[in-house]
Each structure stands twice: as C-alpha cells, then as structure tokens.
Recover the amino acids of this structure.
C-alpha cells in the first residue's frame, strides 16, 4: 500500500501525486518509470514515469493525464488515500555522462519525467538548456522546477499565450544551427512531438534520446506488448528502454500500436469525465444516497 | 475420448470394480481391465466458458485404473519421471483405497501433485515407458498415472486433509526466492522445511508465476495454485508481491544490506519470440504471453469488472504447436472468437503439445492448418490485422531434434482472413537478472548457467526453471527447484 502525501491539479486533465514508496525512492534513477495498479483483482497496470523522488523521505511523485479509466480513478484519490500496488522502478535509467551542452525538450506532461533527467545532467556537469512547451499557458507544468534546475529555459506555447508562440522544434532547430550546438538532445512528450524533435536534430547529427511510454502489462520483459521497432528491429520498451535513439525509432508504427484500444479509452474518458464532473459540482443524487 | 458423463463413467467403473475387487489378479487379468477414460465437460458449451474442462476420476474409476498397474519389477515409469515419484507404490495405495497414503507417497518427491497431475506431459514421461502400455502396444493404454495423481491430490484437498508440513527448528538463516512459479514454490517449501526463513519475491501482484498468468483456468484452476501458496504461508513463508528483484532492489542488495544468506533465481520465461516477418507489429498481433496474461491474470474476460481491455476478434490465427499455442487457441474461443486457426509448420505427430490438449482443442472446434507457416501479416487501412499470408510446407529429412523438418513449397502463398494473430513460438530468456547482476554468467541465449547442483557463477546464488532451461515444463522446473533446495540446505547447514 502506498499513501498519497500530496495532490495538485496542474490543469483540467493533469494531476500530480506524491506517494510513499520508500524502496522505489531509494533505487530509482532518472528516466525510470513505475506500473500503478488500483485494484489487484480487476485493475489494469499502467506505466507512469517518475517525475521526482526523495530517498530520505521515502516518496516518489507521479504526474499523469486522465486518459482511461485507471487515470480517472487515480485523479479522484485524495491525500491520505492509498494506491494498492506500485511496481518499480522499471526500465533502464537514462545514460548520463558529461558531454557539454544538453538540450532537454519537454512537451505537455512530458515535462514532468524530463525534470529528473535535467537534474541528473546538471549534476554530471553538463550545461542544460530546457525547452518546455504546451498547447496553452494553463497547460504548462513544472516551469518553476525547470527554472531552478536548468541553466536556461525556453518556454513555448502553441497559441502564444505564454512564452514564444510556436512549436518546441523551432528553438530546438535554432540551437542546432547555433555556433555552439548541443552535444545531445533529450525529448519527452507526445509521440508526434518526439518524432518531429528527432527529425529536427537528425540533419545536424545531434544524438537524440526519446522516452517511450507504450502499452504494457507486466513491465518486466515477459509479455511483449510494449514492443516497438527501433533500427528495423523489434525492441521492448520495458527492458530495452524506455529510452531509445530517436533517430532509429519507427514512430509511425508506435503511434499505430498505441491506438489499439483507442475506442475503449475514449468511451471510458467520456464516462469518467462525466462522473468526475458530477463529483466536482456535487451530484445531489449521489450525496442524498451517501454513495460517495 | 469418450463424451460419457462423469456419472456414466463412474457407474461403469463401479460395476467393474465390484467384479475385480476381491480377486487375486494375475497380470493377464490386470491387462484385460479396460483403460478408464476421464470425463470432460461437453465440448460445445465448455468452449465458451472458463470452467475446468477435465473433470477427474470417480473413486471407483481411480481404483479400477490403479488395478491395471502390473507393479512390474523394473519400474520404468519412475526413471522417466523428472522428480522420480514412487509411482507403483502410490498406485498400489490407490487400488487399496488408501488415498491419503497415496498422496503422501507422491509428496515425498513431488509437492504439487494437483498441478502436475493436470499439466505434466505424462505421455512423454512416465506413461511413455509404462510396461502395460508397451505390452498393449499403445501409449494410450498405459496406466493413466497423471489422472491417478490428480485424483488423489484432489481427494485430499476436497476432503480438507491437506496439512501443513512440519518445519524444523528455526535456524536464523534467511533465503530469498525470486519468482513464485513452480521452481520458486518448490524451493520455498523445501528450504522452509529445513527451518530457514524464506521470503518469495514476485514482480506481479499475484503469486504462482506461469501457473496464474499463463496456464488458463480451464486447464488449471487458480484456486488450486492459491491453495499451494496458502500451505506455504501457513509454514511461515513470506511473500512480497510487486517487487522486482533487479530493479526494486538488486540481487546484490538482497545478499548485502537485506541480510539474505542465499538466493534462488527462478524468474521464468522471458521475452516472447516473434517471427521477424512483415506486419508483426500491426494492431491485433499479440504474443501468446500477452494474450494469455490479459485473459488470465488480468481477468480481461470479465468485461464487466476488469479494467484491462481485450482486443475484440472474431477470427483468430494462432502460430505454434506447443501447449501455449493450444492454450491461446482455446482461450480465443472462450473470449468470443467464432473461428480459430492453429497454424503449425509440421504435422500433428510433431506437435510438442500434450496429446490431451490437442484433442481438447480439436473437440472444441479449433481448425488445424498443418504444414503451413506465415510469411507476412496484412492490414486494413486502419493498420488492423485483416489476414495472414501463409506458405505451404512438406516434411523433409529428420533434423537434429529427430523430427522431420518442414520444407517450404515455393509459390504456394495464400491468404487466410483473420482479425487477430497470436504468436506462440516460445520465449527468449528474461534479460533483467543478467542486466542488473554483475558476474552472473549466462549462455549466448541469455539463460543462467548452473552446475549440477543448480549453483550459478555467483556465490550463494542458485537458479532453476525456465530461466535456466529455456521454455520447459512445470515438472522440470520443480525438479530443478528440488535439486537447488537440497544444495542450499546443505550449504546453510555447513555455515
């Protein structure tokens, strides 16, 4: 059992939870993830990246977007509630070494898992330029943390409501073209963003790491559900990843595979969204019946 | 296999038993007793439900079947059992109706008879060498050792007679068992009996390993596996689920700061093998591991309750000819497929699956496509599987395995329309332990290298089961577990 210590709502659909997990907090490293399960009889196991952790205090932080039934249920949990099972830390940690300048690009909730990687690169003595983006100002997360951790932060929004107007690939391209191009790039965010970040850096030969978050069941190298095509070969995100060379990943196939259960997800999303709204505004019937 | 009901078979056996029970039977009398069929549920209705297919013997059936055993001097069955169960002895007890004595006799070497009686490939092991079967010139007429084993184990459980094995005085030594499958549970039991503290670490949220995520309910009810785990708990074995050794803590940390004196690695099967053909990563292509795990462990068949989704499919193609392929075929039917093809590049004779599973699959309506092998998987405009293209094969000369090797017939490509494909071609090894444990020697294929006592290249670490053997069986994993436990106990005694 893992107790929720803190909960924040970053935006309409994005939440931050800090939960007790002393063993995971002690051994986790930048780039790793956990599998969360809310009910051990019927719950699904969903992969979430570790956004922050404190070994001394024994907690990890998770940032997630309400997409399917499990994330919606997770969003309804409050401080003091518990999560039945968290398995981790999973996946290979980020490869960190002193290379000079590293540009870290985060989009949407991808900014959260990027944060420990920024800190690790900084600790290794690299200069870190962070490019963080969102569709609009309200959806931008972890800006304060990023400003504290990185040497330079470039904020981009699609609609120009905050920072530069445009896509994260634009400042990324400028950095690659500059007099001091980065030695390495890290991109975490929606698959299409990672795809275009990798396409942006490729002509400049800037090694680009992407972190993939595919469908998983066991997360320990048994089921093969998370497989992706990298460099023409089938690789497994849970044990070979989650990070891969962005120039080698077949993003189109990955995006295709991630759509496998889209219909069910959308159905759950609508249903759960209505339930959450009812909760928020106070459903008179539910209250009367004491159902919640 | 007969489709007489259990009651009909039981009545026939009762009549037979009355005619033989008080006679001194000569070998030729025993040979004349008809082999007892085991009742199964009706193939049409069972193929849509999860309930167990095989129903087990009645008492009279068990005693009649036991009376067929010739109690021969050379006991070839014992030598062909991976754990050397004293088979003639336990069968003699069954004939006399001493069922508790029978199951206790089995448990001197096999701790999981209710499981082995259901999933062991007996026709390739004990029953393959049975003197009666040889005399009657058919392995199908051998004494049904597996069914008798199952009968006595079920009898013990159903009558509430399973007792907690005696545990020796606490030694103060601690052993970590990594993985709660058949190898791990065997080690846990044997090491705990010697008085050592045992903690079993399991990465999943449920214990039992392949017996709960892989082997389906209709072949091995989960309650039977959980009963075995409860027995271990009552002996004082501790279970830690959601704990991935190598990541949550490394093996070195367990042996270091956690203070374990020894460890056993039984982490089981690893990454599924794929065919490396075009279309394998389309929507609707699954490894059998994923397909079965969703359905078994994650209970996706229970759509009203389970959060884990299933991919809806009406026509399913399964590639492979082993037990896992049979499980996948039969699970697909139960999950609503109207048509299931089993695509296998050799013929029925070469199939590695247990004969009973092949028969059950056939009875339930699985269509076998022998001497065919996929060349590519084809998609519709949305990237979902719409067909598999296969090539016809013929059997050529025997290969190193002794099986006649399949040879492709050029130009015979043709499509089979399907809307899901399940690949059941076995597993590679799981890379995690080797990735996270310095100095652990593995083969080129990633399997842990052990000595005859199951010791690995690291001091105080033993290994066994599929992580050593590659994909094998429950009984072979248990055999390795027994050897490892004996060696661990000997090591701890000398410490």
């Amino acid at each position: 059992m893992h107790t929720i210590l803190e909960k924040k709502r970053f935006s309409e659909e994005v939440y931050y939870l800090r939960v007790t997990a002393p063993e995971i907090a002690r051994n986790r490293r930048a780039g790793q993830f956990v599998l969360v399960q809310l009910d051990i009889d019927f719950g699904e196991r969903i992969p979430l990246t570790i956004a922050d952790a404190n070994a001394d205090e024994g907690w990890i932080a998770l940032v997630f977007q309400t997409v399917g039934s499990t994330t919606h249920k997770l969003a309804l949990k409050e401080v003091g509630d518990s999560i039945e099972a968290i398995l981790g830390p999973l996946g290979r940690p980020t490869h960190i070494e002193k290379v000079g300048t590293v540009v870290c690009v985060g989009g949407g909730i991808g900014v959260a898992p990027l944060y420990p990687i920024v800190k690790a690169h900084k600790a290794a003595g690299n200069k870190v330029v962070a490019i963080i983006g969102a569709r609009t100002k309200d959806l931008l997360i972890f800006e304060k943390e990023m400003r504290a951790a990185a040497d330079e932060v470039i904020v981009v929004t699609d609609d120009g409501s905050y920072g530069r107007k445009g896509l994260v690939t634009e400042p990324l391209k400028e950095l690659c073209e500059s007099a001091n191009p980065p030695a390495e790039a890290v991109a975490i965010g929606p698959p299409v963003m990672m795809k275009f970040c990798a396409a942006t850096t490729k002509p400049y030969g800037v090694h680009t790491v992407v972190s993939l978050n595919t469908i998983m069941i066991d997360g320990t190298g048994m089921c093969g559900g998370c497989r992706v095509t990298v460099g023409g070969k089938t690789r497994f995100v849970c044990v070979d990843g989650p990070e891969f060379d962005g120039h080698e990943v077949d993003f189109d196939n990955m995006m295709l595979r991630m759509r496998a259960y889209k219909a069910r997800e959308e159905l759950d999303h609508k249903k759960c969204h209505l339930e959450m709204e009812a909760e928020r505004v106070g459903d008179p019937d539910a209250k009367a019946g004491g159902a919640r | 296999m007969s489709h007489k009901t259990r009651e009909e078979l039981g009545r026939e056996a009762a009549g037979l038993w009355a005619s033989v029970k008080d006679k001194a039977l000569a070998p030729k009398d025993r040979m004349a007793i008809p082999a007892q069929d085991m009742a199964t549920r009706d193939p049409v209705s069972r193929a849509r439900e999860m309930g167990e297919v095989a129903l087990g013997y009645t008492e009279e059936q068990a005693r009649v079947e036991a009376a067929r055993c010739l109690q021969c001097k050379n006991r070839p069955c014992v030598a062909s059992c991976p754990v050397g169960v004293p088979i003639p002895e336990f069968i003699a007890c069954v004939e006399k109706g001493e069922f508790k004595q029978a199951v206790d006799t089995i448990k001197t070497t096999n701790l999981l008879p209710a499981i082995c009686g259901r999933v062991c490939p007996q026709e390739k092991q004990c029953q393959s060498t049975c003197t009666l079967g040889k005399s009657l010139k058919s392995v199908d007429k051998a004494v049904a050792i597996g069914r008798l084993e199952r009968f006595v184990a079920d009898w013990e459980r159903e009558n509430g007679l399973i007792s907690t094995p005696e545990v020796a005085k606490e030694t103060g030594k601690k052993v970590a068992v990594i993985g709660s499958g058949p190898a791990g549970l065997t080690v846990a039991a044997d090491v705990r009996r010697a008085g050592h503290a045992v903690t079993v670490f399991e990465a999943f949220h449920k214990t039992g390993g392949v017996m709960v995520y892989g082997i389906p309910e209709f072949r091995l009810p989960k309650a039977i596996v959980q009963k075995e785990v409860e027995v271990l708990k009552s002996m004082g074995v501790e279970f830690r689920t959601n704990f991935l050794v190598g990541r949550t803590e490394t093996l070195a940390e367990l042996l270091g700061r956690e203070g374990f004196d020894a460890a056993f690695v039984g982490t089981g099967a690893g990454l599924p093998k794929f065919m490396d053909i075009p279309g394998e990563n389309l929507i609707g292509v699954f490894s059998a591991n994923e397909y079965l795990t969703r359905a078994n462990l994650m209970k996706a068949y229970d759509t009203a309750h389970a959060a884990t989704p299933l991919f809806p499919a009406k026509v399913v193609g399964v590639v492979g000819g082993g037990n896992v392929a049979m499980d996948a075929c039969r699970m697909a039917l139960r999950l609503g497929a109207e048509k299931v093809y089993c695509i296998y590049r050799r013929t029925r004779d070469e199939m590695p699956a247990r004969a009973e599973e092949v028969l059950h699959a056939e009875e339930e309506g699985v269509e076998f496509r022998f001497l065919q092998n996929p060349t590519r998987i084809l998609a519709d405009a949305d990237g979902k599987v719409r067909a598999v293209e296969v090539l016809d094969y013929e059997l050529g000369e025997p290969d190193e395995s002794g099986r006649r090797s399949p040879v492709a017939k050029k130009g015979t490509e043709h499509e089979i329309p399907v809307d899901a494909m399940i690949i059941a071609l076995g597993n590679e090894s799981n890379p995690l332990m080797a990735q996270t444990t310095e100095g652990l020697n593995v083969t080129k294929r990633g399997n842990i290298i052990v000595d005859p006592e199951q010791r690995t290249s690291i001091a105080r670490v033993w290994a066994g089961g599929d992580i050593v053997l590659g994909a094998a069986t429950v009984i072979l994993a248990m055999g390795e577990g027994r050897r490892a436990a004996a060696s661990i106990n000997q090591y701890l005694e000398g410490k």
Summary: The longest strand of chain B covers residues 385-398. Chain B has a mean pLDDT of 94. Residues 48 and 334 of chain B are 4 Å apart (CA to CA). Chain B is about 35% helix and 15% strand.
